Batch of 3 targets.
Target 1
Amino acid sequence: MRFFRLLLGLSLIVLLADCARRPTKLEIYDVVINHVTVVDVVTGQLRPNQVVTVSRGKIVGVEPADRDSYAAKQYVNGNGRYLIPGLWDMHVHFRGGDSLIAANRKSLTLFLAHGVTTVRDAGGDLTPSVFQWRQDMNAGKLAGPRIFTSGPKIDGPGGYWPGSLAVETPAQIRQAVDSLKRLGVDYVKIYDSKISGPAFLNTISEAQKRGLKTTGHMPYSVTLADAVRRGLDATEHLYYVFKAASSKEDSLTALVRSSLSTPKPLGLFAVLPAVYDTYSPEAADRIFKLMAKRKTAVVPTLFIGKTLSELAENDHAQDTLRAYIDPKIQATYQRRLAGARQQSPAAQAFSRKLEAKFYTLVPLMQAAGVSILAGSDSGPFNSFIYPGASLQDELQQLVVAGLTPLQALQAATINGAKFMGVASSTGTIAPGKDADLLLLTANPLENIANIKQIDAVVSRGKAYPTAALKNMMRAVKNP
């Protein structure tokens, strides 16, 4: 009997030891991308033959691929492909009123199909819908990019864009910023159509008190340096940086201020020729260094400037992407197109000359340490700036302007994440980060145009191969 008990005990020990050596449960990932070259957008280094594992919307591991088989709900072959973080478009618009809600919603598909997994909505009049889309996407009911939003713009009384919050007095500014804070916006967008210089600067201060970032257009009645010192976090487009690069900025600002009480106040476009003629490399260097020191970013939006300056020559009638833009949004394009056709040859020539000058500012700002953010300005009323594709075009224009492909990628990935304060959880490829990824069939560091060579997009931890992306595009194509 003792012998049998001893034999049974030994058998149990062997069995337990064998179980200890075996994994108790095979981990099944949501997505596995195997044998892929990972592009480090911080250093520019390539890490070949990696396996990237994803579960519950997060990157679980990034490590050398040591086997061909992993258990996964979605397996993506990365052999011969390059993996970068999903792209960020840091300037888009959802707007046009209730009649355009469904049309704007379709753009979510276009962003994702072109590798844009995060967007920053720079003000509009569809805020409740934007919040609903965000909720539905987080719940897995809707496919599309993550959205950061400013909600309604802040402007002066009688502002140009519908839905803007009108401010003039300190009390109105506090009330407007408090309402945005309660709404749960991610930052404050200020617009310059009617806002006064003092109201613009005071809005920056009140937003800061409430922990909200500020970006926007600037009235030409204030200087960019004053706004930067007040705490402006980013300036949209290059009109305002350009004015600050004038050797006569103070005189031009004073001229604008004095004109405000006359029947014909001077606006941005009336002053731009004088700004162009008084451009100063020394003044440019001063403002760029101040922006870098105070961490004021810039969104150049080169591609829309190029597109609009060429509208008189190109009506985009043959654009293949027009088939995916809702006819109601296409109708909003006509306003800018009609304006371009009415421009004099001299005005058209100046527009092209101005845009060329804007391109020269970008590498100077990059060299000075200013954070460059890639934004397309896509949305209703911004003619032929197609969601998703226009961000790809913006990166190409940043390289044309003088950035390296790596710097352009940084402008559309890690720089956006840093600006929005979420770099610890997104913007790069590392364990623990959000699984928002873009798989390419060619190296974007060799040619930035390779960001168009999409093999798959991963958004919120779900993989969309090219076939799935094409199906999504077909679903929003006009009948």
Target 2
Amino acid sequence: MKEKLYTIPVNDAFDKDYECPICAMYEELENRYVEYAMGPSYMEDDIRDETDRLGFCEKHMKAVFEQKNALGLALVLQTHLRRTRKEIEKLSGDLGKPAALMKKAVPPSAAAYVNKLHDTCFVCKRIAEMFDRYLETVFYLYKKDPAFKQKFAGSKGFCTDHYGVLIVKAGEQLKGAEYEAFIKETTALYLKNLERVEEDLAWFVNKFDYRYANEPWKNAKDAVPRAMLKANGIPYEPLS
């Protein structure tokens, strides 16, 4: 199948020697939008309005800081904090109600605003919007492109979280026998590769036993970070 613009990132992710190609897709988006947040876009009114309103989660606040654009981040934080202060000022007249007999306290309206702000992030929002399109493209290619279907079957499987995402998404994208075949194939692929990483971990542990000191490492040197990705989707750099 001739590649189109929206299929390229998905094919690129499945071409990588990675324990979860869905994680690779996510990381590509994450890097793109972290860089975007601190690129020239932060001076655009519509982007600044969005960063002011949403802010950043703890993870992505650290990531945009690491872009080393101190002036850009200072400007973004300046207007974000100003907006937050004004919103809290508007809501500060509501003091809530203390706990009464057999009843819970009613928190001030400002608490709801703070909780909502805690759950929003400019980078997370942008990733979520595009990530769903990437997942839809995975199923599009799986149905339409035999070469991709073969690539899917030959991958190293998926992290636990993205295995779950795929089998849920399959219910929206596939029907009948095609759905059943996908679930069976994806589950078998996930379990087979989880077992492979378990075996690498077992050999990694053996290498700390003096009886195995002179044995080769086989594929176990980076077993721990690969197992971390399988378990929690934590990025790692494969050994070259």
Target 3
Amino acid sequence: MSDEKKILEEAFKFHGHICWASAAGTRAGLAALRTLGVKRAGASGDLHCILEIGENHGAQCFADGVQYSTGCTLGKWNIEKTGWGKLAFTLIDKKNQKAVRVSYRPGPHHKKVAESSFMRKRGQGIPPTEIPEEEAWEMVDIIWETPENEILTIGDVHPYEWEEFGEILGLVPCDQCGELVSKVYLRVVGKSHMCIPCSGYER
């Protein structure tokens, strides 16, 4: 088994189930790393990812594939999303001030995915974890074995000026609920300093 296929298997474990979109995200993330000539992010200072996903659709799975393959995660705060609902992202090499955008391409391969037994069962409301793995892998192999230029659009590497603002430190208890909250998220209500939920503010 190739190293990249091992990464794919680990990405599925990270994601929680086997699916085409997380496979596409993993493949796209690996392609972005290769194009930039960088390794998977080991620290927040290496890379930053801007995902173009939205809410409540299949791109969430794509995002997990990108996260696992690139190492850009919410916990390291080196990933963010635009909310555009697209299967695409820009990976930024912060140290060398350059970036590349990668997007998933439609085509005959996607029609095959849509017509797979896995997707037919998903359309019937069957959870992905209840579909036989061999059916899931038949679908994933479509994504994994399609030539890269047919499944991904990889943009040119371009300059990207990255401005680092540094980490915001400092947690204090909310005067209302007592839970710790980052200082910049405190809201003033009368003489009290409260977290957003307790303050009544929306943001």
